Structure formats: C-alpha cells, structure tokens
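User: Last request for today: this protein with pyridoxal-5'-phosphate, please.
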Amino acid sequence: MTDTTAAARPQGFDTLAVHAGAKADPATGARQVPIYQTTAYQFRDADHAARLFNLQEVGYIYSRLTNPTVSALQDRIAALEGGAGAVCCSSGHAAQILALLPLMGPGLNIVASTRLYGGTVTQFGQTIRRFGWSATFVDLDDEAAVRAAIDENTRAIFVESISNPGGYVTDIPAIARIADEAGIPLIVDNTLASPYLCRPIEHGATLVVHSLTKYLTGNGTVTGGVVVDSGRFDWSASDRFPSLSQPEAAYHGLNFHQTFGAAAFTFHGIAIGLRDLGMTLNPQAAHYTLMGVETLALRMPRHVANAVAAAEYLAGHDGVAAVSYAGLPDSPWHDRAARLYPKGAGALFTVQLKGGYDACVRFIGALKLFSHVANLGDARSLAIHSASTTHRQLTGDQQVAAGAGPDVVRLSIGIEDPADIIADLEQALAAAG
Ligand code: PLP
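Assistant: Here's the final one, the structure of the complex with pyridoxal-5'-phosphate:
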C-alpha cells in the first residue's frame, strides 16, 4: 500500500533510523536488509560492465567498493546526518583517512583540536606525516589561534563535536565560520554525540565522520567507520582541491565535481578511496550496525539520563575532586552544550579522584557492573584509565590538554538501571579509599 501523504512530508529522525536506505528485497521480499555476503556481482553483458566501471551507471561491481547491505547503511546514516551521501569503511580511524584523502597531498596540512581522542592525536601528529601531510593542534576556544594556524597549505579543520574523554564541547558554528572565511572544509567527528544529539551539518560542518564502533552500533560488536558529506562545499571555488575539481589521473581524467556535483565527495570516496586504500566495511558488520541504528533514538536518551544521574552522584562524593561533563551546570561548556545539544551532552565523561593515580587504579579494579575495556558507546557501562591506555602515546601535556591526565578515569555510561550503575560506583569509590 502506498501512502502518498507520508511520502510528501519529511520523515522524523526516529522513522529514518528504522527505514532510511532500506526497502523490501526486490528478489525475495525479505523485509529486513539481507546480508549480501558476496564479493562480486554478475554483469548483464560487456556494455553493462563497461558502463559501471566508467561510473556512467551506478551499480554493484565488487564488494571492496560497494555492497547492497553497506549501501543501505550509508543511505541511512546520510539521512540521519542530513548529508548528501556517505561512505562506510572499516573503522573510525579509517574514516578519518578516507575523509582527508581527497583533500590532501604532500606538504599540505590540517588544523586540529588539541582535545581529540588520543588515537587521533597520534594518527594526525605522527602517522600522517609519512604521507607528507601534517597537523597543527590548537585550542578551539582560542579563535584567534585557530585563524592564525591556517595557512595557504591548510586543507581542513578537524574537530570532535563532544571530545573523548574530557567532556569538551566544540562551538561548531564558530569554527565553521572560520573554515568558511578560509575557504576550507570543516570535518566534525560526531562519534560521541551521534546524530541523535547533534547534526553538525546543520551547524555548518562540511564533512562528518563517525566511529560506527560506538553509539551507532551501540552494542560493542562492530569495528567500523563512516564519512558523511554535506554536499554543500564548492570544491571548484579555488584550485586547492584538484582531486575533486580537476581531471583526476587516478580515474582516467574524470572531474568528480563537474560530473557528480553534490555527490562528488561520495563518489570519490568509493571510486578512489575504497578502491585504492581498501578499507572496506564488510556486509555482516553493516548488518549489525543497521540493527543498532534502528534503536538509536531509544538508546541515546537513556544513555544521557543515566550519565547525568551518575555524574551528579560522583560530583557530590567526598572522594571525587572533579567531574568533567558538559551535562553538569558547573561545566565551562554547559551553556554551549545546552545551545548546541539540547537533547544532552552525551554519556562519556571523566572523573578525577582525590587519591590520584593509585586511587584510579583501585577504583577501576573494584568496579563490578562496569567493564574495564577500551571502548565506549556500548549498552554496557564501561571504564578505563585513559592516561595509561587510550591516551598512552601522548606526552603528559597532551594528556592534560585532552582531559586525560593520570588522576582521571573515563566512564562510558550504559543503559542499565541507573540505581545499579550508581551502586557500583559507590562500592568502587569506597574500595578506592
Ligand atoms: N573518534 C573517536 C571520538 C573515538 O573515540 C574513536 C575510538 O575510540 C575513534 C574515532 C576511532 O574509532 P575506531 O576505533 O572505530 O577506529
């Protein structure tokens, strides 16, 4: 039955989370998106194959580039973020490289926040140098410093909407204005907020990246990533993005922007990024993430409510020196979070213990409901000592700047009964002394 009234009006977020990108399988009627566990797709004839390879016709060739299960997930996440298109890949870290590849070249740089996930600081501070790329890290609250860090070789600004782990909230509209003035894209890692809490494109972001590993899958089963393009950046406005705006030798001279318009970045991500870097998401993982996204709008409010309850409890405890969470009224970023993320400031924060490093170790050792793991955004509550794990490769100054000093524990609050979460924190704090 076709409901024309429903088709005429834009669907709400919760509906898109369940339906976007999916339809009953044309071959079998299967209502859930099938796991297309196939490497290749049979061509109708030689002309069909040639048209697909020339990008004159959109279709499936080989699962390193495209796969119907992965495509459904791409379309769903693009819809949730309000983007023109999305490309999934094998991890959040892969998504960052996939987002940068069309923009960068030897000698070029990005400007990045000092308050980023530790693995990203290492990826940008060390590893990308092997490609001849570099990153300048700045405090995003110092807008003059952000402007000063941009030079003629800067090709993007990279930020996290909510930072891991320090509870910092980026003023995305302010940074987007700076990127606009400089004629460069703003890339927002929206992993900690998820599109349920924040849609960076509405605040001026050009590209959004995610680790699917976290809230979008939501149950700790998948390692994956995605790059969403707003479709709004004019890649041809300057000669700074030749791979998108000029004939690209890696695709027999195709001009992606001229040919695909708002879909240029997405086509480039598949036709060159996935083709040549090979950082593909497998269909089984895409299936798990599709299942997770269906319940995103139910899970996120519970994550946030539990995080507020846990943070309030901890902030009032004698053994706690500070809680860094923008959901608490005394956070320096509380008002900004309330303005940009009215549905909540996420469910990841740090707690600083008065007993310092030793108390952190005893506290983590005593937790029972919380799992001691290097992940976040799981339905389960998780804890980790960032300075000795996720942020270990950083210098002491970098750890403190990222909000991951030696006397803090990072908590990712799950969707369990809040009374059980607080009871576990209470007994662990007692054990920590
Ligand atoms: N971005 C953020 C904010 C993260 O917390 C992480 C991982 O913890 C990543 C990116 C990297 O994601 P992945 O582990 O899926 O590569």
